[in-house]
Automatic annotation (TrEMBL):
<dbReference type="GO" id="GO:0046935">
    <property type="term" value="F:1-phosphatidylinositol-3-kinase regulator activity"/>
</dbReference>
<dbReference type="InterPro" id="IPR035863">
    <property type="entry name" value="SOCS3_SH2"/>
</dbReference>
<keyword id="KW-0734">Signal transduction inhibitor</keyword>
<keyword id="KW-0597">Phosphoprotein</keyword>
<dbReference type="GO" id="GO:0005942">
    <property type="term" value="C:phosphatidylinositol 3-kinase complex"/>
</dbReference>
<comment type="pathway">
    <text>Protein modification; protein ubiquitination.</text>
</comment>
<feature type="domain" description="SH2">
    <location>
        <begin position="82"/>
        <end position="178"/>
    </location>
</feature>
<dbReference type="InterPro" id="IPR001496">
    <property type="entry name" value="SOCS_box"/>
</dbReference>
<comment type="function">
    <text>SOCS family proteins form part of a classical negative feedback system that regulates cytokine signal transduction. SOCS3 is involved in negative regulation of cytokines that signal through the JAK/STAT pathway. Inhibits cytokine signal transduction by binding to tyrosine kinase receptors including IL6ST/gp130, LIF, erythropoietin, insulin, IL12, GCSF and leptin receptors. Binding to JAK2 inhibits its kinase activity and regulates IL6 signaling. Suppresses fetal liver erythropoiesis. Regulates onset and maintenance of allergic responses mediated by T-helper type 2 cells.</text>
</comment>
<dbReference type="InterPro" id="IPR036036">
    <property type="entry name" value="SOCS_box-like_dom_sf"/>
</dbReference>
<dbReference type="GO" id="GO:0009968">
    <property type="term" value="P:negative regulation of signal transduction"/>
</dbReference>
<keyword id="KW-0833">Ubl conjugation pathway</keyword>
<dbReference type="GO" id="GO:0046854">
    <property type="term" value="P:phosphatidylinositol phosphate biosynthetic process"/>
</dbReference>
<keyword id="KW-0727">SH2 domain</keyword>
<dbReference type="InterPro" id="IPR036860">
    <property type="entry name" value="SH2_dom_sf"/>
</dbReference>
<dbReference type="InterPro" id="IPR028414">
    <property type="entry name" value="SOCS3_SOCS_box"/>
</dbReference>
<keyword id="KW-0341">Growth regulation</keyword>
Length: 241
C-alpha cells in the first residue's frame, strides 16, 4: 500500500522563543490545564535572545473536544522524551544533521494553523511534516494531489507508531502486510522512515521499564489483569518507544 505525504521547508532564523512567550501555542495549555510544559534546548543561549514573532505561533482551539485532544497529546509527548517543544525548523535541521536516516523528533509547529510538526532525517536531508489536527484526530499533512486516504489517530504517539517499522515476524505468526510511505517534496518522492526518536532528555528508569512493558502487552486483556496502580502508570504513556 502506497501513501504520499507533503512536506515543507523550514529556514533557520537564528532565533529562539524566550521564556516570556513560552505560554503561546500549544504551551498555552500550561495556563489552562494541570500539566507542566517543558522547554528544552541543547543550543547555547548566545545569539538566541531574540523572541520569535508570537503572532505566527498562536493556534486557537475549534472546540472543547479539540482542546482536550491536544492537552492529552502534550501530556504524553512530555513523557516521551522526544518532544522538543519550541525548537524551530532550522534548529531541528541542525539537531538531525549528524543523525542516521530515520531519526525523528516532534516539535511545536511555527505555522499558526497547526500544533505540532514531525521533523525527520531522510535520504534527502531533514524534512518537516505538519501534523494536522481536525475532526477529533491527528494526521500527517498529505499531498493534495494524492487520492489515498491518510491514516488518522486520536493520539500523536499512535500516529508516530503507525509510521515506524513493523516488528519482526515471529515463527508461526501471520505475515504483516507491507506498507510504503513517501514524502512529496519539491516534485520528488522520498521514502518516509521513522526508526528512532531523538531524545531531548534522559529517561527515568521507570519510563524505560514502562516502554519495555508496553512493547510486550500486546492485548487489552493482559493490561486489565495488571494491578490498578501499574495500569494507571502504563496508561499515562502507552507507547513502546
Amino acid at each position: 500500500m502506497l501513501f504520499v505525504l507533503n512536506t515543507f521547508s523550514a529556514p533557520f532564523t537564528g532565533t529562539h522563543p524566550s521564556s516570556r512567550c513560552a505560554w503561546q501555542q500549544p504551551r498555552l495549555l500550561a495556563k489552562l490545564a494541570p500539566c507542566a510544559m517543558v522547554t528544552h534546548s541543547k543550543f547555547p543561549s548566545a545569539g538566541m535572545s531574540h523572541p520569535l514573532d508570537t503572532s505566527l505561533r498562536l493556534k486557537t482551539f475549534s472546540s472543547k473536544s479539540e482542546y482536550q485532544l491536544v492537552v492529552n497529546a502534550v501530556r504524553k509527548l512530555q513523557e516521551s522524551g522526544f518532544y522538543w517543544s519550541t525548537v524551530t525548523g532550522g534548529q531541528a535541521n541542525l539537531l538531525l544533521s549528524s543523525e542516521p536516516i530515520g531519526t525523528f523528533l516532534i516539535r511545536d509547529s511555527s505555522d499558526q494553523r497547526h500544533f505540532f510538526t514531525l521533523s525527520v532525517k531522510t535520504e534527502s536531508g531533514t524534512k518537516n511534516l505538519r501534523i494536522q489536527c481536525e475532526g477529533g484526530s491527528f494526521s500527517l499533512q498529505s499531498d493534495p494531489h494524492s487520492s489515498q486516504p491518510v491514516p488518522r489517530f486520536d493520539c500523536v504517539l499512535k500516529l508516530v507508531h503507525h509510521y515506524m517499522p513493523l516488528p519482526e515476524q515471529q515463527p508461526g505468526e501471520a505475515s504483516h502486510p507491507k506498507r510504503a510511505y513517501y514524502i512529496y517534496s519539491g516534485g520528488e518522492k522520498i521514502p518516509l522512515v521513522l526508526s528512532r526518536p531523538l531524545s531531548s532528555s534522559v529517561s527515568t528508569l521507570q519510563h524505560l521499564c514502562r516502554k519495555t512493558v508496553n512493547g510486550h502487552l500486546d492485548s487489552y486483556e493482559k493490561r486489565t489483569q495488571l494491578p490498578a496502580p501499574i495500569k494507571d502508570f502504563l496508561d499515562q504513556y502507552d507507547a513502546p518507544f
